[in-house]
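Worked example (supplementary).
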Amino acid sequence: MSEILRFATAGSVDDGKSTLIGRLLYDSKSIFEDQLESVGKASEKRGMEMDLSLVTDGLRAEREQGITIDVAYRYFATPKRKFIIADTPGHTQYTRNMVTGASTADVALILIDARNGVIEQSRRHSFIASLLRIPHIVVCVNKMDLVDYSEETFNEVRDEFRDFAMRLDVPDLSFIPVSALVGDNVVDKSENMPWFDGPSLLSHLETLHTASDRNMVDVRFPVQYVIRPMSEEHHDYRGYAGSVAGGVMKPGDDVVVLPSGFESKIKSIDTFEGPVDEAFPPMAVTVRLEDEIDISRGDMICRPNNQPVVSQDIDAMICWMDETQTLSSRKKYAIKHTTRAGRVMIKDINYRLDINTLHRDEEATEIALNEIGRISFRSTLPLFVDEYRRNRETGSFVLIDETTNSTVAAGMILGETAG
Amino acid sequence: MSYELSHLRELEAESIHIMREVAAEFENPALMFSGGKDSIVMLRLAEKAFAPAKIPYPVLHVDTGHNFKEVIDFRDRRTAEVGAKLIVAKVQDTIDAGTVTEETGARASRNRLQTTTLLEAIEEHRFDALFGGARRDEEKSRAKERVYSFRDDFGQWDPKGQRPELWNLYNGRIKMGEHIRVFPISNWTELDIWQYIAADEVEIPSIYFAHQRRVFERDGMLLAENDFVERMEGEEVFEEQVRYRTVGDITITGAVESDADTIEKIIEEVSATRQTERGATRADDRVSEAAMEDRKKEGYF
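After joint prediction of all chains, the assembly is encoded as:
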């Protein structure tokens, strides 16, 4: 079982998301006294008793306006696991933050107010979680204390959500009735809901099996940096440093280097501690090859019989993240894909997706802030890509505006443009 | 065969990835080193990232002049060991040049002045990326900061205008005069740092371990008796067994009472502690609810 679990939370202030996180930290004893004291003082200022949601509000602007404006990262650990929470705001205008938090998450935690059932926002969050291929979705049906801990209400919400999720691609979906405010089923099993035979949220997160989520089949090693000490001792040393993006690599393996197509064998896989017998994601290692081949940053090492798609014409889903401009055909951007950097031109907007209804608007001519759509682009350099659903690392990219240097889009590759 | 890394090795891999990315994409990076445990771990990670080659960037220390001697000795020895070039930017030089004015009185501190010295060093050496050892678990505003944190011409951080950061794709594009602060150990917690120091047998300055020291109490913190702080009335010096949880400017860094004289005991202590390290030992973060946020906007680490 992986020792680190990264989860993204989504929900608006009203769903009690911050309260839930505050509760997880508080009940697992991960909040420190001085933090609690400052939360206590801040709560007092607002004339409230201990407001656990204030634990997660960081910036002055947020405290003043009572909102969460950006992705915040929280950490806590239990004897079983270390948790990294990407806490993202739930308002419509902050879809980009949720996409950001979701990009590295193993689990999406979605909060639903038991009184309101599945609302537009829950659909939007679930869709983003599935678009970003978060392998596990945990739906917390919150505020059960306000619906008399009714099993019937919980079942209604669950069935409604399941109906919606059927249309999405969600490998693992689970439901837990909770009250973040009171603490039911957050860390400890609730005595108020004997009808629920599942685990508490924390114990579910502690035991969630994530080992099969990484791609251990297709060897992908994007060369990040070439190490050439040029010292007396290591005169001829030439190693290719990088992080394994897929598959398991071993010394002696036949490999091919893209884009050159030259073949060689892995001579050794080095680390500071010495050579290792194998390397797998997400290890950061240095690979040496038997033959002297000209290799530089942005090249990719893989197996001759299992290569990514090499293409300049790519189809992808994108989320637009820039408020100062929209995406439209013919525009040019810088792209960052694995360790490769180049330029792309947008060829076509296939459709813009309404993430509430999943309706595809094929007439759309632009994609604006927080909108999601499918595009085709042409790259100046060939890219070595996999479908995003097969490999999150070789299937993802960002677009950068070359004038403002802003990151304007997050992209998930579908494949080579047909025809 | 299970293909799983321990949490420390996963964090290590992420940090090494970031350090290599910076080496590949920037012209002139530097690694900020304070002698504190976080920057020591960072230096260790840099050593690992480029082995068997040397670390391809210099080490920068912004020196307030108010140091623990043990830490400066350690700094000099450790940078020499890894073969890194050490650049020391002195707050005293900034004061002598008249760019900043030294605070006076019993509560005078050079903490805030460091920002000017740092920004001048960045300009002088034309650094385009600076590694910092900040962790997101340390403090509220840091929880919201990117791994690649963009700074404008004036070194300022704009919390609301941060670039989205996705997957492990970092946007390091800047214009002349701008730079990026890079935080490769963002996702580590204090406990992770200590566990790593134990697992890797990383050497740290002696003041992290319990020792006898002459201290006085101020604002509930134990400050070391030193040449740079005037004591106020009623602040009596006494001897206590203490250790430091953070290492910074001697005038504002508090010690905690402790008998943890080994790494194992420190880990035990950190696991059981109910105070954040900054809350317990840093006067600079106690000023207001948003103390760190304000200083960061000005260009602080």
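Two points are worth noting when inspecting this output. The longest strand of chain A covers residues 340-354. The two ends of chain A are 43 Å apart (CA to CA).
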